[in-house]
Amino acid sequence: MAFEGLAERLQSTIKKITGKGKVSEQDVKEMTREVRLALLEADVNFKVVKDLIKRIKERAVGQEVMESLTPGQQVIKVVKEELTELMGGENSKIAVAERAPTVIMMVGLQGAGKTTTTGKLANLLRKKHNRTPLLVAGDIYRPAAIKQLETLGEQLTMPVFSMGTETSPVEIAEKAIEKAKEEHHDYVIIDTAGRLHVDNELMDELQGIKDAVKPDEIFLVVDSMTGQDAVNVAESFNEQLDLTGVVLTKLDGDTRGGAALSIKAVTDKPIKFAGMGEKLDQLEPFHPERMASRILG
Ligand code: GDP
Predict the structure, then answer these.
(1) Ligand 1 close to Cβ of residue 110 (< 6 A)
(2) pLDDT single digits (tens) 135-170
(3) What is the pTM of this model?
(4) ipTM of this complex
(5) Which one, of 55, 54, 72, lies nearest residue 16 by Cα?
(6) Annotated binding residue 228
(7) CA–CA distance from 10 to each of 7, 35, 80, 181, 255 (Å)?
(8) Ligand 1 centroid distance, CA of 108 (Å)
(9) Could you read off the pLDDT of 26-66 as tens digits, one per residue?
(10) Mutate to test the pocket of ligand 1, among 189, 278, 286 (most ligand atoms within 8 A of CB)
(11) Which of 152, 188, 225, 238 is surrounded by the most beta carbons within 10 Å?
């Protein structure tokens, strides 16, 4: 389950302080030390942990807690608020283009869950707006990727725009948008090529698509189970493409939570959605507060 390991550790640490009528500076020190270790063990970015602990300490030993009737609970409230803040505010809205269609570009490394998430997102948008998005097969290097998207389209009974492997991704994206206008699709979701590692050629190609179609959203899909690697990938993609948001996949199997807790702080881009399983209805808006509650119990 998501965050299970981290949750267990933090909850036992925090239990010690909950019932306290008085919280001494020493108590706060001990608690923050444990929280710090738990977060580092969960593979949260080192600098992110340092800043977070500093803020918790400042607030927990300050007036805010000392004057409170139940200082123990107040300390926990501080930790929860800081974790929520760390993961970003509520942010799962999708930009809407002034003129339809709204164009969403999906980027990410191979295996992160990009194609699956393209289908999941389309499913979510159709449920919400009752309109069918147009899916676009922009990975021209792997025929299997095109096939995979087409299969998803069949499962969802949604149209998939593909031009095979001989046309450039820029042209495919442009043609897809023309078609979406003709057929009155509100959303176009472009699945792009992935590689095993970040490389310049891939970035140039993605930049080319971005320049040509000026997407309303560029979502990076990253595998939360890869922890700080996911954070590094997010940094690279963000530097090159100026992302508008991140989708964290495989959160259902991530017991540590390092990526979820670090990405917003490191890239300043919000996590908008989380993949919670392989099924096409297992994509959820990412709610930082709910995540923090899940972690702290
Ligand atoms: P792509 O190469 O980035 O397009 O990745 P795929 O969409 O092919 O996904 C790679 C694998 O990850 C597939 O087996 C998916 O079923 C799986 N996957 C994707 N998202 C999730 C998720 O949120 N949870 C779990 N458990 N598996 C996922």
Answers:
(1) yes
(2) 999 999 999 999 999 999 999 999 999 999 999 999
(3) 0.93
(4) 0.99
(5) 72
(6) no
(7) 5, 6, 11, 51, 13
(8) 12
(9) 888 888 898 899 899 989 999 999 999 999 988 888 767 76
(10) 278
(11) 188
